[in-house]
Amino acid sequence: MKRILILLYVSMGIFTMAIGQELLSVRHAVEIALENNYDIRLSQNELLAAKENKTYGNAGMLPNATADLTQNNSIQNATQLQNSGVERSLNNARNNNLTYGINIGWTIFDGFGMFARYEKLQELEKQGDLQLKRTILATVGDVITVYYTIVEQQNLLSALDSSILISKERLRTAENRFSIGKAAKLEVLNVQVNLNEDISARLRQVETVKNLKTMLNGILARDLDVDFIIDTNVGIDESLVYGDLLERADQFNPDLQNIILHKKLAELDLKDIKSGRYPTVRLNGGYNFSRTESSLGFVAQSNARGLTYGLTATVNIFDGLNQRRNERIAKIQIDNAALQIEQQRLAVQTGLKTAYETYLTNIELVKLEEKNEDIARQNLDITLAKYTIGSISAVEFRDAQENFINAISRFNAAQLQAKLSEIQLKELVGQIDF
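The structure assignment produced for this chain is given below.
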């Protein structure tokens, strides 16, 4: 009956604390983070910028048109000797020239460099998408880690609440026994010290839970004072298979995919550099108006307007062997990217293997600590009954009480570590699900 009353008091306390607070599930927490988290929003903006940059004009495929106006004026002391032998002189001779119009230029061939640049812009967009996915994975991993750390510490807080109620019951029993002469004052004092110790531990635990909630609110980028209750159920996915994880990591690990993309970009850089070996052909055209005035000369004033067009072709004959040097450096960058791919693939495989072994161990520890918690709970029930009738000392009961709290703490810690191992594996794979 006493145990039922204790559980009832704890349940009522938790219910009272929950009034006015939102129930925040791990899924809801992730959804809030995906919407509010600053790192994710920054990565989204970088992806939008990469999409805006992916245009034909940015790659140099489209013509460019300009409206130009040029006004030149001069005042000179001029002397002219004409073919007829007549010499003409004029001080402060004014010359004015005005030209304005629209000019168009279009590079129609640059050794296929424009196509390499456009493809590079496409790959940079993919890189922005990969970076966004990596940021999302890291943020989701942080949310889940902090969330289940709160679960662990909240469960421990509930256990401390139960321990305080038990200590209060012990104190009442000790005082009754002292009042009827069956116990010494020392026993009452020892029980009071134990109760104060439990209350002190609870205060520290409340602080820990509050700080963790503040940390989670920070990741969710919302008001840090928002209070909430959590779902204390920890569901651990025990169906993960190493071979399947390894195969998916090779396809979806964002760090590995990013390095593979770097190699593609290096290949496109080489293609762009090689375009320098080919001629560049550019079409030019425009429609211009011009007006010229001269104080000295055969023509005092002239006006002209009309269409201009033409073609310009240039080819690099010799540039100090820079073309050759740039190509060699680009090839080295491609080789380095290939080595980095193998290096990252090995790092992913190593991290995956060690994380999987830890995952298996933690699952076994959860099963073991769950049994230990049940044993410690039964031991506490028996000890409480014996202590009530005075067949064991307060010290023996305190040992059983501490063993119970420690068993709960180890079980919660084992659950947390198993969950974190699961999340680490899924983050390495690049696919965190619920």
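Interim note for the steering committee: Residues 79 and 85 are 13 Å apart (CA to CA). The two ends are 40 Å apart (CA to CA).
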